[in-house]
Automatic annotation (TrEMBL):
Belongs to the ABC transporter superfamily. Siderophore-Fe(3+) uptake transporter (SIUT) (TC 3.A.1.21) family. Residues 349-586 form the ABC transporter domain. Residues 35-312 form the ABC transmembrane type-1 domain. The keyword Nucleus does not apply. It comes from the Bacteria. PANTHER family: ATP-BINDING CASSETTE SUB-FAMILY B MEMBER 10, MITOCHONDRIAL, ATP-DEPENDENT PERMEASE MDL1, MITOCHONDRIAL. It is found in: Cell inner membrane. This is ABC transporter. It is a multi-pass membrane protein. GO terms for molecular function: ABC-type oligopeptide transporter activity; ATP binding; ATP hydrolysis activity. The chain crosses the membrane at residues 32-50, 70-96, 147-167, 173-193, 253-276, 288-319.
């Protein structure tokens, strides 16, 4: 348990970091493209190195008044072809970068949507969204900002150093000395950059979370007159992200002057000492020019390398946040691979001494205690109880969103922990209390659990829940959009749409968390009729908030404070349970008062 709680705990502001070894597999989604880009980089290095050699030869010929012949044209061709090779390589790297982002996003989303429900309880949606949207793009920079170019760059560097060694070892020694100090300083700065950029991404996550909170509850925020405060709060988060970004900028800004000073110094030293050596006749002017051109060639890859190291540092911070999710065990990792086959004669759903505490709560507290009841196949059981009694929690346990802390939850005669979760859920239709309509069309909403259902069946299902007129409301019919959170539909309609969805999935078990919304008499009657249609021939467990729902239930379970207080039919409980009598009189939303 403590290990689990540790896993759910959020990380500090520093942000998680990955290692270079973990980064590499992410960079090789398209080996052919990568090989092509590396080959072009090597080719580009060859063209780059050829240029100073040819320029040096050209100057020597001018100096010695020799014929230039085809040399200028050859130099021009090398420059043009080199530039084309560079452009093509740049394109390949961009494409490769997009592949990296694509693959990482797919992996991340596949892991994210399979996380245990408890992880969603403990995390902010906005933060998860920013990991998919923003962190993944930082991996692209590793490819586009120099890592692959650095391969060709290293070759250019080695070639340039060899050429410089041949031209003048003394000048090379002085150059290397100056540059080595700068490289050492940069190696010290890089780990700071990784940490700072991980923290900056973390702040972007907090910002997205704050925005998501305000947008998802925009009506409540607006109605509460809290818009300005929310704007300020999100602005503060944006400010935090800004400050974290500035911290990154400050650290990476160190790299530029360190490098700049080193390069200037190297050029000045070469010019000064080289000029002296030309004056004393130890080297020719063409050699000094050649040396300077090679020095230039040597500096460029060093710049690329610095860019690559900084991109890698930033990517390691982002990858840390990506890996944090990818590494979490998926919900089904610990599943038994046995498909659930309901045993004839066994109660369809049963709780045997179930005790439960939410794992994600800061102070885990028992929400269900020693709960036992049975729902025979084909019957309807209503759960009633005051708010917070634990009614919705029982549904979460039947769906196996969480595991019971003690006792057993049985579906179709098997302990839900002994069977594969997918096969368990394929038996159950679940209509949530605030049944969400997914952004998209009516058709998409209905097909969620029955992807192959024909339009004819969709229309039948809509008719069955008295939503047939929904299709006629818009000329787009089943393609009518139901909006981000189903804004076109009322609460009661959304719930009926969810019931239609459950009807189409045709599962033997139906869990229905009845809407608590105060519905008008017509909607009320429609919802009751929809429930009756949906529960026909199915084992139905309904969390009831309406008297009409409980009166004809085969069994009513009264929950209070996580315990079963009483079980029986409406008449039996009116006699036997004071709490039920109280609920029936005051809390169950009765269209007509009890007589
Ligand atoms: N995801 C969660 N993490 C932690 N605690 C939770 C979670 N969901 C519910 N709880 C707590 O568990 C208790 C039971 O909640 P539950 O939603 O099952 O009650 P309910 O009887 O369905 O209430 P209502 O009729 O108001 O929906 C409540 O105290 C609630 O605060």
């Amino acid at each position: 348990m403590s290990e689990r709680r540790g896993m759910l705990r959020r990380r500090g502001d520093d942000g998680p970091r990955a290692s270079v070894g973990e980064l590499l597999p992410y960079l090789f989604p398209k080996k052919g493209l990568l090989a092509g880009a590396i080959a072009l980089s090597v080719l580009g290095a060859g063209f780059a190195l050829a240029q100073p050699l040819m320029a040096q030869e050209l100057i020597a010929r001018v100096e010695q008044s020799r014929a230039l012949e085809w040399l200028p044209w050859l130099l021009l061709a090398v420059v043009v072809i080199g530039a084309i090779v560079d452009g093509f390589q740049h394109f390949l790297l961009q494409v490769l970068g997009e592949h990296v982002v694509l693959r990482t996003r797919r992996t991340l989303v596949a892991s994210m949507l399979r996380l245990p429900i408890a992880e969603f309880d403990a995390r902010r949606v906005g933060d998860l969204v920013s990991r998919v949207g923003s962190d993944t793009t930082l991996l692209r920079a590793v490819l586009t900002q120099g890592l692959v170019e650095s391969i060709g760059g290293v070759l250019t560097l080695v070639g340039a150093v060899i050429a410089m060694l041949i031209i003048d070892p003394l000048l090379l020694g002085l150059t290397v000395l100056v540059l080595a100090v700068a490289i050492g300083a940069m190696l010290v700065v890089m780990p700071l950059l990784t940490r700072a950029s991980g923290a900056a991404q973390e702040q972007v996550g907090h910002l997205t979370s704050a925005l998501e909170r305000a947008i998802s509850a925009v009506r409540t925020v607006r109605a509460a007159g809290a818009t300005a405060r929310e704007v300020d709060a999100i602005g503060d988060r944006a400010g935090d992200a800004f400050r974290a970004g500035v911290r990154v900028a400050r650290i990476s800004a160190l790299v530029v002057p360190i490098f700049g000073i080193a390069v200037q110094l190297a050029f000045l030293v070469v010019l000064g000492v080289g000029g002296l050596r030309v004056a004393t006749g130890e080297i020719a002017i063409s050699q000094l020019v050649g040396f300077l051109l090679f020095l230039f060639l040597m500096i460029m890859p060093l710049g690329q390398l610095a860019g690559a190291i900084s991109a890698v540092s930033v990517a390691l911070g982002a990858l840390g946040r990506i890996q944090e999710i990818v590494r979490l065990p998926s919900e089904s990792d610990a599943d038994a691979r046995v498909a659930l086959e309901p045993r004839p004669g066994a109660p369809m759903v049963a709780f045997e001494g179930v005790t439960f505490a939410y794992p994600s709560a800061d102070e885990p507290r028992t929400v269900l205690e020693d709960v036992s009841f049975e729902v025979p196949a084909g019957s309807r059981t209503a759960l009633v109880g005051p708010s917070g009694a634990g009614k919705s929690t029982t549904f979460a346990l039947v769906e196996r969103f969480y595991d019971a802390t003690a006792g057993r939850v049985i579906v179709g005669g098997s302990d839900v922990r002994d069977v594969d979760r997918e096969s368990l859920r394929s038996l159950i239709g679940y209509v949530e209390q605030d049944a969400p309509a997914l952004a998209g069309s009516l058709r998409e909403n209905l097909r969620l659990g029955a992807p192959d259902a024909t339009d004819e069946r969709l229309l039948e299902a809509l008719d069955a829940v008295n939503l047939g007129d929904l299709v006629g409301r818009s000329p787009r019919g089943l393609d009518t959009e139901v909006g981000e959170a189903g804004v076109l539909l009322s609460g009661g309609e959304r719930q009926r749409l969810a019931i239609a969805r459950a009807l189409l999935a045709a599962t033997p078990v139906l869990l229905l968390d009845e809407s608590t919304a105060n519905l008008d008499a017509r909607n009320e009657a429609s919802l009751k009729a929809a429930l009756d249609v949906a529960s026909e021939g199915r084992t139905t467990l309904v969390i009831a908030h309406r008297l009409a729902t409980v009166v004809d239930a085969d069994q009513i379970v009264v929950l209070d404070g996580g315990r079963v207080l009483a079980r029986g039919t409406h008449e039996e409980l009116l006699d036997a349970s004071p709490l039920y009598r109280e609920l029936a009189a005051h809390q169950l939303l009765a269209p007509a008062a009890l007589d």
